[in-house]
Design brief:
The complex is a heterodimer of chains A (about 325) and B (about 500). Chain A is an all-alpha fold. Chain A has helices at about 5-25, 30-55, 65-115, 120-140, 150-155, 160, 170-185, 190-200, 200-205, 210-235, 250-260, 270-290, 300-310; strands spanning about 145, 165, 165-170, 240. Chain A is globular. By secondary structure, chain B is an alpha/beta fold. The chains are: A mainly alpha (about 325), B alpha/beta (about 500).
């Protein structure tokens, strides 16, 4: 296919333009404190978006990630609180975080199994599981909130607020996952198979690729990413409410699409997704720092960026 | 010939066209009389499709003039269609979710009191199909129909739109013998009514059978333009490839004496998105080339797809290398050394948007162990394949969809043979491929057999099977009608095979 360099590098160009705009518009924009803050706040969505890149590249979709994050976080907090007396604060925290990964992976696997084995459209399956999981967390919290035991909050704090060599821990986790994701997409057989399936699942089936297994694996990986995101989210707020993770699925999909991954599948890039996440984060940040546009218009800007990004990345394929 | 007295309907003068630096057409002069049928032949990439698109107004020529009944043709397909010029593309332009009738009359739906008159529509569509001697139900949904029916619906739609000049790009590529015959009868009737036809085909026997005149394109120039009468296939082929043709088929090695490597008994495939197969049995030996003939819809593809796990089926016995086992699944078949080359290159064979290197390595890298991709190995593998199958591609990184049909097919063959299988099943290996590439593919097939591989070739072109294979298995309505085993040196005749395929020898109730 023809992808000229402009549309290929589009997300990077947009990032550079945002940097220029931000530094011209606000003196505080280019401070390391501000920028690290933006990336830290973006890392939860960023981690989920890395998983979404694989699902979408394989021509799937997962609308349930926001509700899944809330449910996984809620379940983990309940488990941690319950384990606190026996395992102690540190033990309960780590056991709970490990359980978050298990819960996330299992939820993703369930989505994948329904889509692949149940032969139900991914949009419908994940719309359904989104409703189910959102409702479960509302029921579990009885409409209020599920809070982390106070003893655990202090122990967990560094996972969100801590730094290593000046870099916040969430940023490190996001960066590590993004690098692994980029390698998986471009250098691992898994990534090649994800691309092949998204491009044409029939061809993949004729090419000795285990299509069902790989497709389920993308949903399971998405679930693991949601679990990983809750590891950061839980220590940050220490509580889950029925509105936790609301609309995260749309933010993640937006980031993936802005990054240049094709919604119709067959072409995906993790670095683009990272750029997409940062673009969305920076736009919000610039609107907050400057006064002449209301931050309430953030959504309008983000919406316009999505449309423009897809417009610029239209593929001119002759077939 | 009557067309000599007829006025010119279409006149092309000095048509030239280039895509970027690539000159595709160099000063084409061509005329077409009222009621004339012209066959446009040439290797892939010779410029046939480009010329058709220019005539139909899809493409404005770089230079030259196109006149239709004395009037210039503007580069607007809508206007051209209003003037009666209708192009039937190689790619289908049908809507799967609509019925056959709705597709045929799309945009011309008969109405009553402002509502669509479905009865009239189905009747009109039924008539259009009847003229092609087809029994497709006008009320059937498009999506469930096989590819040959799609082609027939597309043709019925074109004829029903009231054309004066019909341009058909490879109309018979997916049709069986009976459907092709019906199409030719329709073309003759259309021409007799004063319609003009230009069509392209790779089958030279067809070209001779239906056309009044043959024009050969080579590298954007017309190298032959003569009445079909008195023209031999050999003349046409020579004009196409620009040199005298050696024997089309490589010499056939003697029939091997080795025991079968693969044998199946009582294979049955249920009806599921394709015709069923009942109780099929056959075996193939190392070094043997086994042909499979049969009409479209006789279950040829379904039978071999079942063997390689692409279709659920059951068999009484499946014996590979002397050991009995259950039918493999799609990945196991590859691991057991059974390779299948699909007949549907574009939607099942290749990732058209991906580069040729990745396509060549797709299957073998899926079979290889390890999680990391070795891209250097991919490059080496493609370089090797490029030399071995003489693939012409501008770069290893070019998208495979941008190659000509023949080169795409060679990439698909390279991809299929990369895992070095012992049993190679090739479904229509030369479909939509020009004669030069065909000869190369025949060489590859003969080479496989010489190296002790068991080869199964499915083909709708009987001359191809007769020239290429040791034995021909003929299928008729889901059953193995017979296996033609020629004694020593004689090859089965086309007539013998046709009789079997049409059920004339196996079904005593036939008239």
């Amino acid at each position: 296919m023809i992808r000229n360099s402009l549309s290929r590098m589009g997300p990077l160009l947009a990032l550079i333009l945002l940097f220029l705009a931000g530094s011209l518009l606000s003196p505080t924009f280019l401070t390391s404190e501000n920028l690290l803050n933006v990336v830290t706040r973006s890392s939860v969505i960023g981690i989920i978006s890395v998983g979404a890149t694989f699902v979408i590249t394989a021509r799937g979709l997962d609308l349930s990630v926001g509700a899944m994050a809330a449910l996984v976080a809620g379940l983990s907090i309940l488990c941690m609180n319950a384990m606190l007396p026996t395992l102690g604060a540190m033990g309960a925290l780590f056991a709970g975080l490990a359980l978050a990964l298990v819960f996330g992976g299992a939820a993703g696997m369930a989505n994948g199994a329904l889509v692949v084995w149940g032969r139900i459209d991914a949009f419908i399956v994940t719309l359904g599981t989104m409703g189910i999981m959102r409702s479960l967390i509302t029921w579990m919290s009885d409409g209020g909130s599920i809070s982390l035991d106070f003893a655990l909050r202090g122990v967990g704090r560094p996972l969100y607020y801590g730094t290593v060599l000046g870099v916040p821990v969430p940023v490190l986790i996001f960066a590590a996952l993004a690098i692994l994701g980029e390698i998986a997409m471009t250098r691992l057989r898994f990534g090649r198979h994800v691309i092949a399936i998204g491009s044409n699942a029939e061809v993949a089936r004729h090419s000795a690729i285990r299509v069902a297994r790989v497709r389920i694996a993308t949903y399971a990986f998405q679930g693991l990413c949601v679990g990983l995101a809750t590891l950061i989210y839980i220590p940050r707020l220490g509580a889950v409410t029925p509105s936790t993770g609301m609309l995260w699925e749309l933010e993640a999909i937006a980031a993936v699409i802005i990054g240049g991954t094709a919604l119709a599948g067959g072409y995906g890039r993790v670095w683009g997704t990272v750029a997409g996440v940062l673009i969305l984060g920076l736009v919000a940040n610039i609107l907050n720092l400057t006064s002449f546009v209301s931050p309430h218009l953030n959504g309008a800007f983000q919406g316009a960026i999505i449309v423009i990004a897809v417009f610029l990345q239209r593929r001119s394929t002759p077939f | 010939m009557p067309q000599n007295q007829m006025p010119d309907a279409l006149r092309l003068e000095g048509i030239a066209h280039a895509f970027g630096p690539n000159r595709v057409l160099n000063g084409i002069d061509l005329t077409l009389a009222v009621g004339e049928v012209l066959a446009l032949v040439g290797e892939n990439g010779a410029g046939k499709s480009t010329l058709m698109k220019i005539i139909a107004g899809y493409l404005a020529p770089g230079e030259g003039r196109t006149r239709w009944q004395g009037q210039p043709v503007s580069a607007d397909p809508q206007e051209a269609e209003t003037a009666g010029i209708v192009l039937v593309h190689q790619e289908f332009a049908l809507i799967p979710d609509l019925s056959v009738a709705e597709n045929i009359l799309l945009g011309h739906e008969p109405t009553r009191c402002g509502l669509i008159d479905f009865a009239a529509m189905n009747k009109a569509a039924g008539n259009a199909l009847q003229l092609l001697n087809s029994d497709i139900d006008p009320r059937a949904g498009m999506a469930g129909l096989p590819v040959s029916s799609w082609q027939i619906v597309e043709l019925a739609k074109a004829f029903a739109s009231g054309p004066r000049l019909l341009l058909m790009d490879e109309p018979t590529a997916v049709l069986g013998a009976r459907e092709t015959e019906a199409l030719f009868a329709r073309i003759r009737a259309f021409a007799a009514e004063g319609g003009s036809v230009i069509f392209t085909s790779h089958r030279l026997d067809e070209v001779r059978a239906i056309s009044d005149r043959v024009a050969v394109l080579r590298d954007g120039t017309i190298t032959l333009d003569r009445p079909a009468a008195g023209l031999s296939e050999h003349d046409i082929a020579s004009a196409m490839i620009g040199r005298e043709m050696e024997d089309l088929f490589p010499p056939l090695a003697p029939y091997p004496t080795a025991a079968p490597i693969l044998a199946v008994e009582g294979l049955s495939v249920p009806r599921d998105f394709g015709p069923p197969v009942q109780d099929a049995s056959f075996a193939v030996a190392p070094g043997e080339i086994l042909g499979i003939a049969g009409l479209v819809g006789s279950g040829r593809t379904e039978m071999v797809e079942a063997l390689v796990g692409l279709r659920s089926a059951n068999a009484r016995r499946f014996i590979l290398r002397g050991a009995e086992s259950p039918l493999p699944d799609a990945v196991e078949a590859w691991r057991l050394g059974i390779a299948y080359l699909t007949e549907d290159r574009k939607s099942r064979g290749l990732l058209l948007a991906e580069n040729v290197e990745l396509n060549t390595s797709l299957t073998i890298s899926a079979l290889a162990g390890g999680t990391l991709i070795d891209r250097d190995e991919d490059s080496r593998r493609y370089a090797d394949a490029q030399a071995r199958y003489s693939i012409r591609a501008a770069s290893p990184k070019i998208a495979v969809g941008r190659l000509s049909g023949g080169n795409q097919q060679k990439v698909l063959i390279a991809k299929t043979l990369a895992p070095d299988p012992d049993v190679v099943i090739l479904d229509e290996p030369t479909r939509g491929v020009d004669i030069g590439a065909k000869m190369q593919i025949y060489q590859v097939i003969a080479g496989l057999a010489q190296n002790g591989k068991a080869v199964i070739v499915i083909s709708s072109e009987l001359p191809e099977l007769i020239g290429l294979v040791h034995r021909i298995l003929v299928m008729d309505r889901g059953r193995v009608a017979g296996i033609v085993t020629p004694p020593e040196s004689t090859r089965p005749t086309e007539h013998e095979i046709l009789n079997l395929a049409l059920g004339l020898q196996n079904h005593d109730a036939s008239t």
